[in-house]
Every structure is written in structure tokens, then in C-alpha cells.
Amino acid sequence: MPASDKPLDFLWFIPSSGDGAYLGSDLRARPGDPDYFRQIARAADRLGYSGVLIPTSVACEESFILAADLAAHTERLKFLVAVRPGTASPAYYARLASTLDRLSRGRLLLNIVVGGNAQELAGDGIFLPHDERYTHAREFFDVFNSLLETGEAHLDGTHIRAHHAKLGLPPFQKPRPPLYFGSSSDAAHDFAGDYVEKYLTWGEPPALVAEKIEAVRRAARAKGREVSFGIRLHFILRETDEEAWAAADRLISHLSDETISQAQEVQKNQSDSVGQERMRRLHEGRRDRLEVSPNLWAGVGLVRSGAGTALVGSPATVAARLREYQEIGIDTVIASGYPHLEEAYTVAELLFPEIGLKPAVPPLRPSFGAAQVFGGGGHGGNMKTGT
């Protein structure tokens, strides 16, 4: 079966730092709230998303704790939760991961986050140069993986010392929850080839994504390993291409040039992330350079750090763009849209039928067999067609 004919694994996003209808504006903004996160998670659970990404930063709720709460309010949904080497010991993270995997009965995915904003890293006590952070991460995951897979680990490393470490309770998944990871530097590609099950890229044009996939695949195969690939994208889906592009324009209609300038200054000067710089260079902060590839729009990245691109268009158009990514090796999508509750429904209702995905919960029968159309919710109920 061609790669583009296989159904994508489709995850959604929990906006744990807050949500809104307009970027760069407090108009119709939604502060982060646990009840709202549960709404999104329950919607994703029944609409057919396989999981949700829970982000990590000083502006976000702590991802392990939030995932534990959401797991109690969902049935099938998996949780892609961050492990940040250097913020705690590998033994402590192993206990967190094992417990959450056991409590959720195997619904834990682990997202390795090595880099990010330099000021935030310093606040967490991490002062290592860019490439040395990956040397540290290797030692960290040597201990972490050994504990989850065997219950014990021992290492006298340059950065990590763990003497006869023990893990009393194994995770639900065997041998451990899978490791996801995204970064764009050469050091990151080598790390991915050695350690992770799934490499993630932010939404760059397909040719650039293909180069990263090939680099990671080559690094993995040199060690006798295989890695699968995913992409992190925003989505602006509407019934027609014209409506979708109008929605993209509305999303940044309250975004001022001053706010763009401030955001771009932070992205350029406070991060040593290669991936962040690649995102920034797609548009250079300019409103007239936002369609960086057919239907790939960089307007989100004018103000948002991290993933800054969206696929924009009708269901047929966006499905065609996704097939282009599938053909170069992408099998997983981590998606989002603003606001996240409404757009979870929009993407599922418009795009999922186009790409062969179905709701996790089959709909209840609306009638005893006669076809019906929505009648506006009046006292008479829906209308039977043909009558």
C-alpha cells in the first residue's frame, strides 16, 4: 500500500497556556482553565483523534499533572507529555512516566524536549551549550530507558551519575512508552537516530521536511534502527479555499506590527534553537511572505514561538497537501487550530472523511431509517427528506 493511502495517526493539542480567536489580541481570548482543557480532551476523545500533545514551558500547566487529570476524564485518548532532561533526574522522571502509564493503562507517549528559550533554560538551571545538551540527553535517556525497561540502571557519566538506581513498578506498556522528539540540528538528528521511535518536524515545505527525514533515517539505519516520522501543524479548514484564506486573514487581523516586531525579537535573540530559526526564516516577520509553500501559511509564526505554520484550504486541498507529506514518510500529524475546541470539531467534521478517519464513538441512530436533515432544533425535531 502506498504511504499516502494509509490513514494518518492524527493528534490534537491542549492549549495549556490559554487560547483565543485572534493572535496578538485579548479580544475573545480564553485564559487557561482546567474545565476548558477537559472539554477539548473529551471532544478529541470522541471525534477520533488518537491523542493530544500537552506543551511544556513556564507559561504552561505542568504536563504530567495535566495529563493525569485529563486521563481521568477520557477513555481512549493518548497523552504526549514532555520530558525535559536537566529539570529533574532520570530516575524521578522514570517514576513519573511509569505511574502515569499505569494509571492511564498505557496511554502515555513521551515527548523529549532538549532545547528552547535560553532564558527559560537558565531559569531551570540548565546552562549547557546547544550541542552539549544532547550529550547530556544521551546519558539521561541511557538511565531513563534502562529503568523503564529493566527496573534498574547504573551510570557514571560526564553529566549524569546514577548509582544502582531502581524502579519498583514497571510501566503498563512494554518495554516502555514510546519516545517522540523534534529538533532540527545535526546533533539532534544523530540523537534521534539513536534513541527515539518517532521524529517530529514543524511544518516546513515538503522538500525541507524530506531533507530532515532522510538525515534522521540515515542516522537510525547506521545503528540498525528504524524511526517513524510526524509533523506538527496548525489547520485552518473551511468548506472552500476562499473561506479558509479569509479565516487565516481574520486570525491575524488584530495583530499589530509592534507585537510582531517584539515577538520576532524574542525568537531571534532568546533562543539557540535551529528549528526556531528555520521557522523564523520562512517569513522574516513579513506579512507579505506568509504563503511559504502551496497552502502552507506562516502567519501563526509571526507571534507564536515553536510551530508557526498552518495548512489552509478546503478539505480536498488540505488532504492533497497532507498526502504530499505522507509520500515523503510522514505518518503522524499533531494538529491544532484557534480556538482549539471549535477547531477540533471543524477539522474532524471536514477533513477526517477526506483522509479516511472516523469518529472513535459511532454516532447514535438519528431515526428508524428514514434519511433526515437538521431542522434547526425546533420542537418538531429534524425533517425527513422526501416528505
UniProtKB/TrEMBL annotation:
InterPro entries: Alkanesulphonate_mOase_FMN-dep, Luciferase-like_dom, Luciferase-like_sf, SsuD_RutA_monooxygenase. PANTHER family: ALKANESULFONATE MONOOXYGENASE, ALKANESULFONATE MONOOXYGENASE-RELATED. Pfam families: Bac_luciferase. This is alkanesulfonate monooxygenase. Gene3D superfamilies: Luciferase-like domain (3.20.20.30). It comes from Pseudogemmobacter humi. GO terms for molecular function: alkanesulfonate monooxygenase activity. Residues 10-331 form the Luciferase-like domain. Its EC number is 1.14.14.5. It is an enzyme of class 1 (oxidoreductase). Keywords: Flavoprotein, FMN, Monooxygenase, Oxidoreductase. GO terms for biological process: alkanesulfonate catabolic process. Belongs to the SsuD family.
